[in-house]
Amino acid sequence: MRVDEESRSARMHDVVVANGRFFGGGMMICPEAEPDDGLFDVLLIGDLTKRDLMLTLPKTYRGRHLPHPKAEVLRGATVQVDADEPLPVELDGEQPGTTPVRFEIVPRALRLRVP
């Protein structure tokens, strides 16, 4: 996987590309993510054991799971993820396809109107 000019290659439990802090039922998976900073926060979750997962998962609801020895956060405007075999990609609960996949921040692509 590649985030801007940095690349990582390893066995991973999950790769989370986030533009906001929360996902999946209120988990604060990327506590430092800001939707308007022009960067993705990419959480690389290493090869976790079941014990690691059981001890760490409850901490995600308060954003207290980081730092973790088997996790790393990278930040960048372009993210590419690939694997030896195609892996499912999930976007906000939907599965539009498989790897390889590329994400790119497009500045000012959305107009929001708030009361």
Topology (elements, then pairings):
Elements: E1 2-3, E2 6-7, E3 12-18, E4 40-46, H1 50-56, E5 71-76, E6 78-81, E7 88-91, E8 94-98, E9 101-104
Antiparallel strand pairs: 1-2, 1-6, 3-4, 4-5, 6-9, 7-8
Distance between the termini: 40 Å
**CA radius of gyration:** 15 Å
Low-confidence stretches: none
Sheet-strand content, in percent, reads 35-45%
Task: Describe the main β-sheet briefly.
Answer: 4 strands, antiparallel
| Structural class by secondary-structure content | mainly beta
Per the principal axes of the C-alpha atoms, what is the gross shape?
Answer: globular
Number of E-type strands: 9
How is this structure best described in words?
There is one protein chain. This protein has 115 residues and is mainly β. It has one helix and nine strands. The strands form three sheets. Strands 2-1-6-9 form a four-stranded antiparallel beta sheet, with no helix packed on it. β7 and β8 form a beta hairpin.
Summary keywords:
115 residues; mainly beta; four-stranded antiparallel sheet; 9 strands; globular
Short structural summary:
The protein is mainly beta and 115 residues long.
